[in-house]
From TrEMBL:
Keyword terms, alphabetized: Hydrolase, Metal-binding, Metalloprotease, Protease, Signal, Zinc
Positions that bind Zn(2+): 190, 194, 200
Catalytic residue list: 191
SMART domains in UniProt: ZnMc
Protein's recorded name: Astacin (Peptidase family M12A)
GO terms of molecular function: metalloendopeptidase activity; zinc ion binding
Lineage: Bacteria, Pseudomonadati, Bacteroidota, Flavobacteriia, Flavobacteriales
Presence of the UniProt keyword Membrane in the record: no
SUPFAM superfamilies on file: Metalloproteases ('zincins'), catalytic domain
Signal peptide range in chain numbering: 1-20
UniProt keyword Metal-binding, yes or no: yes
GO BP, one annotated term: proteolysis
Pfam family, one: Astacin
Amino acid sequence: MRINKSILLMSMALAILSCSENEPISELENLEPDNQVFDGAERANFSKTGTTEDGFYAGLPISYELVDGKRIFEGDIILPKDEIYTEDSNFVLENGQDPSLSRSVGRTSGRWPNNTVYYTIANDLPNQSRVTNAIASWENNTNLTFIERTSESNYIYFRPGSGCSSSVGMVGGRQNINLASGCSTGNTIHEIGHAVGLWHEQSRADRDQYVTINFQNIQSGRDFNFKTYVEQGYDGDEYTSSLDFGSIMMYGAYSFSKNGQPTITKKDGSTYSVQRNALSSEDLEGIDKMYPDGGDGGGEPTYENGQYYTVYGLRVYRYNDKWYYYSSQGWREVVYVNGAWYYA
């Protein structure tokens, strides 16, 4: 007698199914479903919303989100807590004041010296290949070299987190890139972008020429995430000629939306797609200017007259090869002497 193999296999499958309906699969009992929906903007914490705080950075007012003790800007950027103040004072000292009162900091461009980034990966970080693959993407397409840390004092520490987040540029000492299990290789490429000095693309100083920010659609208390970095007192250098909708650093059209409507549109009112696959050609163009071949990304920056810069923690304007700062007394010339800014 011939037995129909298809019928036999189907009977076995039904038997297994009837058992599995009553016997839970132990591996899945404690597994929580992945409810994360990527709206085009990384988050420092996928499940928690912090409180909105105000302070001063580089002598200018800034708003940020306080989440688990971290000062978070634009969703995933970690602000250095020792550079945020509650009062607008002592950013520039008068002659004769004690330099210990100064609130300036010893960081200018935040570039990694010799185009070399040191890093280490926490042993308990799940899926470490997303880090190594992201690093490979950077090394294969830019002039940056990533080396596992031995005893270097300045380095990136990839560790588990509640979301995807990073500081911008080399901040000194250990700086964390936090990666939740939902952070992909593309998200990791994005966070490394912050760590080597890139800001979000939609925060460009000239972004209003290319996009419209629909503030009426932004979640309550999150509108500060959509200011340009010049408005927030940060480095305003542009390394490409126009906004790049394909940049891996670009917010999505629906980022931080409260009503399902776009928060960012093109000037004609249309939306766009965001990608987290690889660095775009314009991303690479900008990085090559920041870290040229054979160059020293951490070398002394050059300054042009008629431009704003953040230098040693102060937002200053370059005019006739001198620095000027706008205070309650108007524009005044300032000089940096022995670790502190003074009025000239």
